[in-house]
What does this fold into?
Amino acid sequence: MLLPYKELDCPDVDKISADIWKFLNDQTDIMSDRSIGKNFTWNFFSPKDLITNVPSLDAWFSSIGLRLRDVAATVTRTNKGLEAHKDEPPVLAKINFPVINTKDTWNLWWDDDGNEVGRIQMIKPLAFNASMTHGVEMGPNCVYPRVVLSCMFMKQPLHLLQVP
Ligand SMILES: [Fe+2]
It folds into this structure.
């Protein structure tokens, strides 16, 4: 049995988030394409470009023994939230990294009987159990666009989700 999520300590999270935000705006079309953000689709882009432009993110991943394999930006510009679902295998464990406007937006997890087993605002990066049913709720005070990076690794960080 794995935890639904675990908050991770990242001392430079605010600076790294700001650098990712600048990268997404300056080096990709994801933020300028206004058709993106009506729902929570994954917008994949080059992990190599990301770590070249935001080396502090790669340094933090290295510090916890992870090498980035794939990365996608989830962008939302509406209050619809994201319905309960499980991600497609083989992704069980990933890291979701806050980029901008994650305050008053809530990640939720449920067990197989529909009981809520986790609820958190993403202020810090999260080790994220994507094999457990999960979704997102937007609170009344959230600000758009909300942007989060879904980060997948050469070796899935299942160890971060072990029950202590
Ligand atoms: Fe998901």
